[in-house]
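Methods: example folding runs. The two proteins below were folded one after another, and each record is reproduced exactly as written to the output file, sequence line first and structure-token line second.
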Amino acid sequence: MSFFRDYLRKQGQQPDVQFDEDNESWFVFALVLLRIGFPLSYWNLIVGRGKRFRQQDPLADFAEGPEFRNALLFVSWFLCFFIPKPRRYLEEISSFKKDFVPGFAFDYEKQERLFKIVRPEFSRTPLQEATWETVSHYFRTE
């Protein structure tokens, strides 16, 4: 079981199992890094253009300090766990996940696109002041 799914279950949440765990783990890892404020250049150092080691779960070895825990909580909220969201947001995040999660672990173009469409609000909005009206508040949607 992945770190993220295990984390959700320990928090009393039901993980979304429609996606492959490896792809979901790398997607959540990218979102955590974006929340912390790391740019695409940092992602490139870790992953490179499709030249990463086949690590089962990138979150499992991440330092579990307060920044990581806060970023993981924000990402969990963003992905529709823990707090209720408006129907429009639920539909948008479902589409967003279907666009990004499948194949994410090895698809550099998808990874790069995620880092390029993020808005500053994703890393700058205080946790308690986050808004969940639309995904486009945090990511430019095409």
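Second run, written to the same file directly after the first:
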Amino acid sequence: MIFYIRNIAATQEGFMNGQLIIHIVIMSAGIILLAIGAFIGATDKGEKKLSLHKAFGILGTLVFLIGAIGLLITGNLRMNLAHFYLALAAVLFLILSIIGGIAYTKADTSKKPGLRKSHKADVAIAFLLILVTMIFGITSIKLLK
């Protein structure tokens, strides 16, 4: 499949190489995993599916990190684009949300409401940053020509 993606990318106008396509696919997978985790967390009443919510959140964040590390390894990391800094902020908020979620599961009952609000706020900010990052990523593809 990777060879197929690279062949398609090679036929583009020269600015969308296979590594960029793979980056887009990996990041899209991360967004899907995070969205599934968020949906499970939002609809779970009584914390019956907390482990599933946690697994999707952590897995989605790890997929994002893999996408970023892939760019670093291939030398395609562009630290001069706003996309990079927005993505970095989004990943930091995702990591904060994981920390907040873990703290929530280990906290006393009296502290859980505040930790849950913090966790939800971190996730909301992360999703907003991801959305803006996607927009900047799409618009900056033209700069990579």
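Comment on the second run: Residues 1-15 have pLDDT under 50 and may be disordered.
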